[in-house]
Amino acid sequence: MTGVETSGAPLHVAGPEGPWDEVCDRFESVGRAVVHTTWGEWLTAALLDPELRGLLGRDRPRYRQNPAAAGRLAFAMSRVVMKHTAAAVLHTAPATLDIAYLPGGQPVLRGFGGEVWLSLAHTEELIVVAVSRSGPVGVDAESVTRRVSFEALHGQVCTPQEAELLAALPDDRRAARFLRLWTLKEAYTKALGQGMRRGFGTVGFRWDGDGRAVLADDSSAARAWSFTTCLVRDRYLVSEACRDTDRGRGHSTGHVAGQVEDRSREDPGPLARTGLPPAQTVRS
Question: Topology of 11-273 in CATH?
């Protein structure tokens, strides 16, 4: 994996105080923003916040039901980060926002239906939040050290065409591409509001002439979707799926301004390597 691009990559937000200016600028110019942080970075400030109970809102019963202390804290911090991110781009106070969930688990801002879309992913200590005004958005994150068995799971995750291409790769490149494909499909199905309820094997991806991940379906509706994959903190693979509602209506034919491109002209090599600054776009 060489030639790393940082333009438009997920933005690091170290705590409730931000910095939020770059997040707001990204949201205003591109129509969406993705942030990443860790629950440990937010923990002290959030626990000392007298509004924490109110910030959890309707998530408080789920927070209290989590049997593990670390799990409760990670759950709480992920919801706090999501509210702060949405509040920053909407120029309001986090406590004024009310987050509900659709049947597929997709978070929504009550009172902003069809205007602002949210997505949340968290794994280990990482939290990723996406907020969009240009159309539905989904994010997923996985540790590059996670070992996912291609042999055991390809029938559930891949289309026959994807499985055939992956089977022809060397073991390390197959594992890297399989994990990348997994995160892309989870991000996409989250954006659709379906999550894990939709079988990944029903969703096909291919790589276009510029090396970007695109849906195998070549319909105009499919072309409204854009996808990126970034390496965050040298450890986490973060994929984003976003549909531009204007492109979906045929008002635009190009990529969204500022779109992070996933230019993997070949299959990415091993993803777990050092020396990369945070939030790098995965390329070949």
Answer: Ribosomal Protein L22; Chain A (3.90.470)
